[in-house]
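ARCHIVE CARD
Drawer: 12
Card no.: 0347
Subject: one protein chain, sequence and derived structure
Cross-reference: see card 0346
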Amino acid sequence: MKIPEAFGQVLRKHRKAANLSQEQLALQCDLDRTYIGLLERAQRQPSISTLFSLCEVLNVSPHILIKEIEEITKPIQ
């Protein structure tokens, strides 16, 4: 799996765990709702600032999100 796809999967997982809609997450991060959808569908990639903003609202440390993405994208040995 490619990094943008993994990011989208992890973002969706954490958004749903926080019981937030795409619109609610976007509003709390001062982003457009369509942008959250684009991130989750791997059609856009976030800046570092956006990543930190998303993590703050989702109450997850950025390094945890990155670690989960790394685990998904790591080749099976």
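Annotation on reverse: The mean pLDDT is 95. The CA atoms of residues 55 and 64 lie 9 Å apart.
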